[in-house]
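Checklist before submission:
- one chain only
- standard amino acids only
- sequence pasted in full

Submission:
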Amino acid sequence: MSFQQGLSGLNASSKNLEIIGNNIANSNTYGAKVSRAEFADIYAAALNGSGANAVGIGTSLAAVAQQFTQGAITTTENPLDLAINGAGFFQLTDGQNPIVYTRNGQFKVDREGFIVNASGRQLMGYAANEQGVIQPGQAVSLQLPTGGVAPSASTGTEIEMNLDSRLAVTAPASGAAIDFFDASTYNNATSLTVFDAKGQQVAMTFYFQKAATDTWNVFATANGESVLGAPGAPDPITTINFAADGSAPTSPVGAVTFDIPASVNSAGSETLAITGFNFNVDAATQFGSAFGVTDIQQDGFSAGLLVAISIENNGVITARYSNGQSRPAGQIEVANFRNPQGLQPQGNNQWANTFASGDPITGVPGDGNLGVLQAGALEESNIDLTSELVNMITAQRLYQANAQTIKAQDQVLQTLVNLR
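Returned file contents:
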């Protein structure tokens, strides 16, 4: 008689209960994947084959297979929490050991600015240079910027506006071409702030003076001082001539260039001169409607400090600064495998690739069959707690049933021993 079948059944049921218990324990672990026990029957081999009436000698645990199905995504208030919606794994490194992979996106920033997980491994991706240009290629540990952004001097402005053709001519017949303190010497004005090489603000005001039908003089001041002409005798920076229907300027065509002299701003600071400043009014019109500026742009900005980090669906990490500027600080790279079930669990929500899993296929989120990222969210485990509890009841009954086969074998053996 053999106790092998019942003993193997007890061992198999015990392993099954361990796997179910591990699933239940990790039901609240972000990024965890449910495991499934896969069993195989056992038959004794014979020289002439097992025969048609061979009886099995039990069962064995063939594999513990993890199921890499998508878990539910839940939102959080942490911008560094990341969830992959679709296929792929985050890549983590400690700088010494081989790269490991995870679906758990609970990240934080360490003292050196690296994005790390709870075990201190660094998230990998593509770095960006000082101009915010991402450098694709070999993935490196992602490090967030800590310094601010340097100022940039303004190089020009473009104005989209309408000048009212119904207005009267305001150009003085004699004396100074314009008096900035006398509104009767010009028709309209608009202002904007530009920046010198130090990032200091320069208050620019443009004055529009109708000189004749379809003709307008444009004057400019920087911090209240005329940019062209002698003191008390300003000169126009340009004269705009419109077509008869007022649809577009016939001159100037393209940008007019002038220099903004050094001056003192409202804070009492001396601003630097801005040379080669471009003024473009190609989008101006002269219709019989009220004056209005619909768009005005300039390209300079002051120095700024880092105030926020955001992560896009494609993995681009955007740094936002106090001066309103933003620029990429890097891009997260993710990896996928032909056979994710071949990955070897390492603990701490991490896996290592093996020969069975194949080499990692890397790319940015959203490329090919790779999933996209969702910032401020985490992927819950794909463990169905209800299903696991039912499986636990089934495994318990199977354990009891296998124990009964051993008990029956024992009783039969006892009967045989007691024969006289």
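Reviewer check: Residues 156-298 form a domain with the Tick-borne Encephalitis virus Glycoprotein; domain 1 fold (CATH 2.60.98.20).
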